[in-house]
Amino acid sequence: MQLGLYRKLLLMNNSPIRIFSSLAFILLLPLCSHADPSEVVIESFSSVKPFVVGSDAVVMTGTVHNKGPAPLPANSAGLRIYCLAGLDYAEGDLAPKLPELMPDTTASFKWKLLPSRADGPLIVSLALEQPGRPPAVKIIAIPHLVNSIPAESAAVNKTAVASASRGRSHAIIENSHIRVRILRAEANIPILLLSSRSAGGWRQAGVCLPIAEVYSAEGGQRPWWEQFKIDDDDASITRESATLSLSGSFGLRWRAT
User: Fold this and answer.
1) 3-state secondary structure at position 128
2) Mapping DSSP to helix (H, G, I), strand (E, B) and coil, where does residue 208 land?
3) Which of 47, 174, 203, 216 is most open to solvent, judged by the fewest CB atoms within 10 Å of its CB?
4) pLDDT, tens digit, for every residue of 193-227?
């Protein structure tokens, strides 16, 4: 899969479209020389928690960054948050104006949203709006679990073991020190929960989300990120080890195990 990805990217870099884009940029550069020297971008936009359970509140944070050499005057640009699917507004200014931003400084904002139902996709976007410029937009989908995370089992296996989901809410692979659980959110997005064994028992140590991503495109397209979506899982155990295999896809073109 990696060889195919690199091959596609190599073809893109050598395509006439890529060369034409570079020439067009050079020709248009003098027209942009008198543009506003401030350069504000959305540096990050995400939920505080990596996933949402049922109807729990969603807290979103967004940060903008002035990457240009000149200050951005106060109130000359603004943000606007949009609930696109499965969410309603609860707290926070929906269209805040940006304060004055000196070069290489940031400003952060926070919003509280509520799921409109306990299941279904959760999609939200943030737009940076500046007069005379097209809006810069970031759209994210928040993984949504219908049921709460299963409680940790107190059992400790002295040897490595693995079990596929097979009708349960999660798959597991573990030994006497580390336990990994794979849960499925809406749209078959896998969530990896990592736990470690301490004197007081099993304790969750981290969350991995997404498990994997691919950045790719066909010739003439702008590349984009696609998350791994799980179709099936399978477990196997030998005397020396245990294996948990996840199979699925990245978008419509990439298969992975």
Assistant:
1) strand
2) strand
3) 203
4) 899 988 878 888 888 888 888 888 888 888 888 88
3-state class (DSSP) for residue 245 = strand
Instruction: Kindly state the tokens that stand for 116.
Output: 């409109």
Can you list the positions of beta strands (E) in 13-77? 40-47, 52-53, 58-66
- Give residue-wise pLDDT tens across range 11-50: 333 333 333 333 333 333 344 434 456 799 999 999 999 8
CB proximity list for 219: less than 8 A, separation 6 or greater: 8, 11, 12, 15, 17
What DSSP assignment string belongs to 148-169? PPPPPP----SS-EEE--TTSS
CB of 157 closer than 8 Å to CB of 241: no
Q: Which of 185, 154, 158, 175 is nearest to 53 (CA)?
A: 185
Query: CA 77 from chain center: how many Å?
Result: 26
Query: Is there a contact between 228 and 211 (Cβ–Cβ < 8 Å)?
Result: yes
Structure tokens at 54: 């049922």
3-state SS class at 66: strand
Tokens of 226: 């696609």
